Amino acid sequence: MDGSRLVAHLAGLGRLAVAFSGGTDSALVLAAAVRALGPADVLAVTANSASLAAAELAGARRIAAELGARHRTPETAELAEPGYAANGRQRCYFCKTTVLTTIAGVAAEEGFPALATGTNADDAVDPFRPGIRAGDEIGVHTPLRTLGLSKEDVRAIARGWGLAWAEKPAAPCLASRVRYGIPITTATLARVEQAEAAVRRFLDGRGLACRDLRVRDLGGTARIELDAAVAAEAHDDPRLLDTVRSLGFAEVAVAAFRSGALNHEPD
Fold first, then answer.
1. Which end of the chain has fewer surrounding CB within 10 Å, N or C?
2. Phi first, then psi: what are they for 119, rounded to 5°?
3. pTM above 0.70, yes or no
C-alpha cells in the first residue's frame, strides 16, 4: 500500500482544501494533497469549537506545520444548532452540516473550490455515521472512501511514508462521550475534556501506558474506559475514581474501552 493511487486521485481535483481534524484519516488526505499539488495549492481547515479538545487542536497545528500546509482554524457554532445541542442520535448530522458549511465558506474565501474530508471506507459502512450524509449533501470529496481505503490502509500508507502519527489512536469529538439525550453545552464538553486529561495524568503518574481512554458522561455519573489491561490494573484505585468525582460526577466506574460504546445503548 504505497499511496500512489491516492496522490494521483487528489492531483485530479486541483486546488484543494482539507477538512482537517488532526486525526490519521484527514492527516493522510492532507499529506497526500501536499504531495500531489504542492503546499501552495493545499489549505488545511480545522473547525475550532468546544467539541475539539485543546490537545487535538494543538496536534492539528503541529501536523499542518510539519507538512508545510497553510492552516486556518475558524470557530464554529455547533452549539447554536438545536439539533446538535439536543444530543439525539442524529447529532453528528447537525454537527457536520454546521462545521463543513463553515469550512467550505473559509475555503471559498481563500480560493479553494474543492473540499475533501478524511471519511474512509470503514466509515462508509458504519451504521452510526449520520455525519457522512451531511458531507454528501454539501458535496465534499471523500477520496479515501472513493478509493476503498480502510483505516488500516490509511495507517499502512502513513507508515510507508514515515509519518510520525501513523499509529495515532482515534480521537472522536468530545460530544461523542456524552450519553444521547443529555444536552450538549460548553460546560458539559469542558468537564469531559478535564476528566480525560486528569485521568491521563493519573495513569502517567502510575506508569500505566494507555492507548484508548474515554470518560463517558452518563448523566450525573461517569464511566472511565481504558485499555482492558489498564482497566484491570487500575479499576479499584480510589484515587482514580476520586479524580473524576472531583469534577462533579456523583458516581464513577471503570471499564474496558469499547469504541462507540454509547451508540450501542438502547433508546
1. C
2. -55, 125
3. yes
